[in-house]
Design brief:
Layout (H helix, E strand, L loop, with lengths): L14 H31 L2 H8 L6 E2 L5 E6 L12 E10 L4 E11 L5 H8 L6 E6 L21 E11 L1 H14 L13
Antiparallel strand pairs: 1-2, 2-5, 3-4, 3-6, 5-6
């Protein structure tokens, strides 16, 4: 039986330094991945404030003075925005943080003075054709009582995906709603929409 000897090459200068730098970078990447992968579940299962603090740091999310958070999903035509009390026609879906949808509609006419403050504020940031995502903190949503009889519980953060199709005056919107009710047979006979 014979033994073969293999000569060892000397370690090049700087190799150990490169090795330790590589180990440090790998550990830093692992720590960042662990923090990021646990931050979202902690925020999702924590309080409304925990979630909003985490969400406010996400890419593209803007937080207003009132606490409303929004993200532009698609920019609109930049030809103005609806004002307070305006009438809007929107497509939207409202859901809770757990993904449960509590409301949705297409081509829905709404007056901005008939919705929660956060929703009204968010719509006024949009231009025609825009699509936004809103996160409404409880203070500008349904607050500490939630909305009894619905899935919206106390201190719930509501998430809305909204597309602004059109905005018109409050009076024009009310007239449109009256015409729709009349066409659907919901308006008592002889009662005409305003302005007729």
């Amino acid at each position: 039986m014979s033994i073969t000897t293999v000569p060892l090459r000397p370690i090049e200068k700087g190799t150990l330094t490169k090795l330790w730098v590589g180990v440090f970078v790998l550990l830093a990447a692992a720590a960042a991945f662990a923090w990021y992968s646990t931050a979202r579940p902690i925020a999702m299962n924590g309080s409304s404030e925990d979630f909003l603090n985490w969400n406010g740091g996400q890419s593209g999310v803007v937080t207003t003075d009132s606490g409303l958070q929004y993200k532009i999903l698609e920019a609109g035509d930049e030809a103005g925005s609806p004002g307070p009390g305006a009438g809007v026609i929107v497509n939207y879906e409202g859901r809770l943080l757990d993904g449960a949808v509590f409301d949705a509609a297409e081509q829905q006419p709404i007056t901005l003075d008939s919705v929660v403050p956060g929703w009204s504020e968010g719509i006024q940031l949009m231009s025609r054709g825009a699509r936004y995502r809103f996160w409404l903190p409880p203070a500008i949503g349904y607050g500490e009582n939630g909305r009894p009889g619905t899935p919206i519980g106390p201190d719930a953060v509501m998430v809305f995906d909204v597309e602004l199709l059109e905005f018109i005056s409050r009076e024009e919107l009310l007239q449109l709603q009256m015409q729709q009710m009349q066409q659907q047979g919901g308006l008592p006979e002889g009662l005409a929409p305003p302005g007729q």
